[in-house]
Structure formats: C-alpha cells, structure tokens
Amino acid sequence: MKNFDIIIIGAGPGGSFAAKTAAENGYSSCILEKEELSDNGRYKACGGAIAWELVEEIDYPEEKIARVIESLELHHVDGETYSKKGKGGVVWRSTFDKFLTDMAVDSGALLKEEEPMINVEQKNGSYVVTTNKDKYSAKYVIAADGVNSPTLKLLNWPFFASEDIILTITEERKTTISSIDKHLGSDSVHLFFGIKNLITVGYAWLFPKEDKITVGWGNQINLVKNSREEFKKFTGLPFVNQVLQNSTLEIFKPHLIPVGLRSKLYEDNVFAVGDAGGIVDPISGKGIPYAMMSGQIAIETIKTCEEKDKLDRLGKIYEKSLDRNFLKVLKAKRIARDKIFQSDENLKKFLKLWENYRSSQIVMGKLMD
Prior knowledge:
The protein is an alpha/beta fold. The protein has helices spanning 13-24, 52-57, 93-107, 150-154, 177-183, 227-235, 238-244, 288-307, 314-340, 344-354, 359-364; strands at residues 2-9, 29-32, 49-51, 67-76, 81-90, 110-112, 117-123, 126-131, 135-143, 165-174, 188-193, 202-209, 212-220, 248-258, 266-267, 270-272.
C-alpha cells in the first residue's frame, strides 16, 4: 500500500492544478491517470479555445498553441452574424494537459500513467484506491475524472439532471492552412446558433488548429432525437459545407459536457472539481479555467481547514470559496441560459450584447432584462 496525503484521480486541468497546489503546500500527492500522457497522446474531444489571460498566467509557450485567434465569429442560421473581438489561443488538449501535468510533477507531485482506477472505498478514516497495477491510500480524494466520474459513481454520488447535460459530437478534419485562412480567416473561431432551425439548446462550432478543424455540435441531451442527423444538419449548412470541402475525417467522437452543478461538490473528504462537479460555464461550455481554479481551491480549502481546525466545515468552506471566486456567476448563468434559449429573439439579443460585453457582465448586470 502506497500512502499519500491526497490522491487525485484524473490528469486533466483540474487534477493537474490540484496536484501542483498540493505539492507547493507540502502535501504528498499522487495523480492517477488511466491513459498515457504526451504532446500527441490521449485525445480529448474539446474545442480547446483559451483566453490569452490564461496563456500569460501559466506562461504557456506560444509554439505549443495550435492557432492564435483575435475574434469569435457568431452566426445565426437566419443569416445574422456578430463578431466578438478578443485575443485567445486554440490548443490541442493532449499538449495542454501534458504541460499542466509536467508543472505538477516539477512541483513535487507523483504521476502514475496508464493506471485506471478500478475501485475506491473508505476504510478506517482513509480512502483506498485500487488501480490495475497497485493500491494507494490517502486521507483526501480529488475527483477530477470528468463528467462521468467513475470515482463519484463508485461512491454513489448522484449523477446530473438531464437538463444539465449537453451531448456533443466532435470531428477532427484535416485540410490545408490555405483553405482555413480563405474560408474561416487566419485568426477566427466560429460558433453557430439557431433554436428553431439548428440546435434547440446549444450551438455548433468550427475551431481551426493549424491544418485541421475541430468540428463540433452540442445540444441538451434530453432534447436530442437523432444526434447524427442533427449533426449532419449543421455540416450541411452552405457555409460549413464549403469550409469542409476536400477535408478528411480523422476522428469522430461523442462526448458529454455538464452545464449545471452536481447536487453536491463535497462529501467525506472527497472533492469534485472541473467537469466531475459540473463546474463549467453553462452558456459557453468553457471549462478549462474553472477546472484549474476548482482544483486549486480544493487544496487551499484543505490547508485552511487543517490550519484552523475546521475539518468539519470542509464542504461549506469549499463551496463558499468557489462562490466567491466564480461559482456564484456560473449559477446565475445557468438560470440565464434558460431565458437566452427560450426564443431566437432572446438568443439574438444575447449574441448582440456578447459582441461588446463578457457573458458575466450581461448576466450579472441584467442587460437582457
């Protein structure tokens, strides 16, 4: 049995940032990852757009960015278009996640790759985690293993409500840089909306990465009737069809994204971070920065409660800290999301506002009212 203070399950942004924070605060920590990590390793179905502020915050090397972007182009199928200016980057998640995990290891965390978690159980005040290769024990567990979280499933945590889950389909299509620059622009990503004529509650996207395009579609899962046909409806749009002409399909993958919180984020020394807790922007689907912050906050909560002898308040302090940093806004966005997707009129009003304001400013400033 290998003993640690904290076991982190999942080496995505949430898990890696939790491990980094743990190591920096003197905790022994171990990341258990089911796949092998490398710059061209495990594939993660994700558009991969990140704000430039995040690039600068973690000093992410520009040569690892698949494409630098300067605008978000918003298309409504009725023909109206909107343009939101702002610098960002589009990254391959394999490369980005490997960078974050290397940061955690450099800080002192232990990484165990190709060790899927098979079982987790509480014994004598600690958790025993069994993988395909070994057994580990720790006082605390960070569940950073995605929306389907095998960790939380084994611990009998409730799953998300169907209206809080988006079913997505992602394709990776190879084309040419010149074709992308001609049809999409050299520095733009594109989102597509339309409640009546495209997607009931969600959107579709084209995110260029070097000589490839991430093609995505996502709709609230309980409203999906035939996902493949609905995805084809998007790729059949004249603009999209032209963009994808002569491209080659390399990957096709369905995936779930949470757009609402789990009914609990903490129980008995187990913390849910990132997608495992539903800590995602309910309007845009952005999850990377919230995963990283929630992983960091989970560890900081442990440290604060241990130092102040308030371990009985771990859950309350964790959620209060999340609220103070960003969760209060995400909860408000979840309520606003229903209003935005109530009608195409509301949706267009939001898209028009989104050109010049952050979505948080629109929601918290009640600009839709």
